[in-house]
Amino acid sequence: MSDKRILVVEDEPSLAEVVSLYLKRAGFQVQVAADGKQAMNILEKQIPDFVILDLMLPEVDGLSLTRWLRDRSNVPIIMVTARREEIDRIAGLEMGADDYVVKPFSPQELVSRVRAVLRRIGREQAGAELERVLSFDTITISSLTRVVTVKGSQVELTAKEFDMLYLLARHPKQVFTRDQLLERVWGGAAYIDPGTVTVHVRRLREKIESDPSSPKHLLTVWGVGYKFEP
Q1: Strands 99-102, 133-136: pairing kind
Q2: pLDDT digit string (tens) for 111-157?
Q3: 97-120 per-position pLDDT tens digit
Q4: Edge-first strand listing for the sheet containing 29-33
Q5: What class does CATH assign to 133-228?
Q6: Rounded to two decimals, what is the model's pTM?
Q7: Is 4 exposed, middle or buried (0-12, 13-18, 19+ CB in 10 A)?
Q8: By Cβ atoms counted within 10 A, which residue in 1, 9, 106, 156 is the most buried?
Q9: Domain segments of the chain as ranges
Q10: By CB neighbour count within 10 A (0-12 exposed, 13-18 middle, 19+ buried), where does 200 fall?
């Protein structure tokens, strides 16, 4: 993985130095930004292979930077936060972050999480299926181009949103539990909060349903899980 470039956005110099050291020891190329504005300047020139992003940043905060970045790229993001409140973790996931760690954390654990995310992406790319287009009513899903259209207009999905939608759509009417979705979409990583599934379902409904509050395709099976109704 020595060719993977990681941008660390962290305003605490000592923490940024330690995280960078561990990442470099693991074979990654590392660049550091001390605030959100500096990170934007770097990202506008070139998108790295991975971003580790502090939530509380001067100039531009981590949530705003995540939203800005998600409008431009599906680069994996791990958010770092000192806050333990669930609402902050959910906000990060809703903005498009792939994972989060809470301070204080082990730098080696962070490296392990980075590797886990990259392994999942590698498996997705290596196991990419031949072109297959799924069409349901007004929704079209292409497995090869990973493009989703609703009523003829393309909608932007994060990598995990697409993976979840494609899995459910490939098995119409089949009910998947949260644990099954965590296993199939996130690789069953123990540190992923089960609430992540709920967040992604809500985001998908906002993007593919005419009325997200009364969905027709992405349905909840109470007490069990979720299914795709064609």
Answers
A1: unpaired
A2: 999 998 888 877 766 655 545 788 888 899 988 888 999 999 999 99
A3: 888 888 888 999 999 999 988 888
A4: 29-33, 5-9, 50-54, 77-81, 99-102
A5: mainly alpha
A6: 0.60
A7: middle
A8: 9
A9: 5-126, 133-228
A10: buried
